[in-house]
Amino acid sequence: MKRIVLLDILRGFAIVGTLGTNIWIFAYLGDLNLVFGNALEPWWSSGDRLLQTIMLILVNGKFLGMLTLLFGAGMELKRQKAARDGYTWPGVYIWSCALLLLDGLLHYLFVMEYDVLMSYAVTGMIVSLIIHRSRRFMLIMMGIAGSIHVIGVTGITALLALEPGSTFNGMDMITRLYASGTWQEQVMFRLSNFGFFRAESIAIIPLNVFLFLLGSLLMRTGVFSSDGPGRLKRRKLMIIGLGAGIPLNLLLLVPGGMMDIWVRYISAPVLTLGYVGIIAMIMEKGKIPGLLRRFGEIGRMALSCYILQNIIASVLFYGWGFGLGGRPSSIFILLMWLGICLMLMLFSHFWLRKYKLGPVEWLWRKLSISPAPGSKSQETSI
Hints:
Blueprint: H1 5-27, H2 47-59, H3 62-85, H4 92-110, H5 117-128, H6 135-162, H7 171-180, H8 183-192, H9 194-203, H10 205-220, H11 228-249, H12 260-284, H13 289-300, H14 302-317, H15 330-354, H16 359-367
Helix pairs in contact: 1-3, 1-13, 1-14, 1-15, 3-5, 3-10, 3-12, 4-5, 5-10, 6-10, 6-12, 11-12, 13-15, 14-15
């Protein structure tokens, strides 16, 4: 199946963009009070805090939304391939989701407690049972999932409004562990607090279902195609996404952090559509082709780079590594983010000069052959 260059580039942006949010969690040793809704240090209190807020307005939730959207688009491509090749759907795709669930569990335990792969795996199993149905049925399920998500997030936001200045509890214990604890102690901490740290992954499943299905429908309607109609559709998407998304994401400036959750989980996915259109337009105009190729290479090794960037950030900021975490300046955090991005570009570029697949992608292809009898030819990957 021929690769769609735009999807690889978008996926590359999505990978490094998610790090643009997560890097603050690593740098602050897991203290979410310093990342979101810091009532003691509002965005206007210092230039350092203002820089952090601007960065979060640009990236927080937007590239995670893009990655989720692209998972849905990728699933649609696999469904179409299964239909062409005469395979039963979802068939082997369920096995791929099971592998992703295992991968996410290992990543959660050994690398990062806010891993999203387990949530994607469960969502993939759900959406794979919907995606081959009619467009009308898909739209109905999108409406149900979207409504559940909006009602839930709006309810939480209303509760936060009733308790201005509320904080995340237990952050001091987490920061002490990540500042001075061993890697083994952190692993055991994640294991013993599995339910607490996995609550977000469960809560975002309705949003994931909505975005998976949206990505599938966008793929079906030719939004990612290189022809004229595809470009026109992306322009419309960009106008809608930017027009609605920019003012919605500026709600992050509301004092006390009461709108932070609403912005991350509702406003951000809207702006994601605008980002898709902007990146596509840059590619179409032939701007910065070399840089876009580097992002495309990261996109071709998305799973490898996603895991690697979190490992690198852990080594840089946690006490068992270089111990750079705590309260570093925003400029320092951004420089670390840019440095990791450069490392990913160099790694993926030189790896793909010698190999066709990233290391995790290669292993994935080997393992994702369905264990069902007679299905060895049905290789697939997430």
